[in-house]
């Protein structure tokens, strides 16, 4: 009898997981969370403060669009691969050039702008030149600067000029990034995704993290879904010893984590 009950329970759990995958994979923000910080951490994990508590707080306060919203292209219409999207960040894009690396720079710059740290807003272009912001609190000047940065910086400049971070030291605001030249062969494009939240298991020290992404062509900033573990989606569980991480459908080497 006990064996029968155990089998039934396992079947129900498997069925529930299958239903989540089949029915939930196309639903954005299925629990209608209001912000990134409202997303429940895995039951055995606790969010970390991070080295920059204000930065962590800013990223966790990023607003999310309502349940069922679809990722839209900057030029209009639904983006392809909607199943990659777990939730959409409610932050309008500034141009059709705001793609993957640009989104990472945008979120960093928005934090510094909103905390009035204008002198810290700067990014390197593909030639290694430091492009500094000098427009102060004027929003039009800030947005003009960002649109210019989108045209001169890329995954190449991020991967070359951002500072490496060991996986075990992952912080909110870090970036996984590689350039096209780092993927010879059938990889004509680089890619970048930002770590917008980190939680840690106090018993074993393992970390879980959330990723925000932009893509080509330009589309709404969104949190990535974890296909490897849909019951914990959108949290990715970090393997600190891994030489290759598959984050949604994008592969990253273990040494491709960077920070500003």
Report the order of strands and helices: HEHEHEEHHEEEEEEEEE
Mean pLDDT: 90
How many E-type strands?
Answer: 13
Look at the helices and sheets and give the structural class.
Answer: alpha+beta
Task: Provide an overview of this structure.
It is a single chain. This protein has helices spanning 2-24, 53-60, 100-114, 139-152, 155-161, and strands at residues 46-47, 85-88, 122-124, 130-132, 163-164, 175-178, 191-200, 207-213, 222-224, 236-237, 244-247, 250-253, 257-259. The protein has one domain. The protein is built from five helices and 13 strands. Strands 1, 2, 5, 6, 7, 8, 9, 10 and 13 form a nine-stranded antiparallel β-sheet that branches. A two-stranded antiparallel sheet has the order 3-4. It is an alpha+beta fold and 260 residues long. Helix 3 packs antiparallel against helix 4 (139-152). It starts with a helix and ends with a strand.
Topology, please?
Elements: H1 2-24, E1 46-47, H2 53-60, E2 85-88, H3 100-114, E3 122-124, E4 130-132, H4 139-152, H5 155-161, E5 163-164, E6 175-178, E7 191-200, E8 207-213, E9 222-224, E10 236-237, E11 244-247, E12 250-253, E13 257-259
Helix pairs in contact: 3-4
Could you provide a short overview of the structure?
With 260 residues, the chain is α+β, with helices and mostly antiparallel strands. It is built from five helices and 13 strands.
Descriptive keywords:
26% helix, alpha+beta, 260 residues, two-stranded antiparallel sheet, 20% strand
């Amino acid at each position: 009898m006990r064996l029968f009950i155990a089998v039934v329970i396992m079947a129900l759990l498997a069925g529930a997981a299958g239903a989540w995958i089949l029915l939930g994979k196309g639903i954005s923000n299925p629990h209608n969370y209001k912000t990134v910080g409202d997303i429940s951490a895995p039951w055995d994990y606790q969010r970390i403060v991070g080295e920059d508590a204000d930065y962590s707080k800013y990223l966790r306060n990023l607003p999310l669009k309502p349940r069922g919203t679809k990722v839209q292209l900057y030029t209009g219409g639904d983006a392809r691969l909607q199943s990659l999207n777990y939730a959409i960040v409610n932050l309008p894009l500034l141009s059709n050039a705001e793609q993957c690396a640009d989104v990472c720079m945008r979120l960093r710059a928005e934090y510094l702008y909103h905390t009035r740290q204008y002198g810290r807003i700067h990014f390197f272009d593909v030639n290694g030149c430091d492009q500094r912001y000098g427009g102060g609190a004027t929003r039009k000047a800030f947005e003009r600067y960002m649109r210019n940065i989108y045209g001169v910086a890329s995954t190449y400049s991020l991967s070359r000029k951002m500072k490496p971070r060991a996986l075990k030291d992952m912080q909110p605001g870090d970036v996984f990034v590689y350039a096209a030249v780092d993927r010879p062969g059938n990889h004509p494009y680089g890619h970048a995704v930002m770590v917008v939240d980190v939680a840690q298991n106090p018993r074993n020290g393992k970390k879980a993290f959330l990723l925000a992404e932009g893509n080509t062509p330009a589309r709404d900033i969104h949190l990535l879904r974890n296909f490897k573990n849909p019951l914990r989606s959108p949290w990715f569980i970090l393997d600190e010893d891994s030489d290759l991480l598959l984050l949604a459908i994008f592969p990253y080497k273990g040494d491709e984590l960077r920070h500003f």
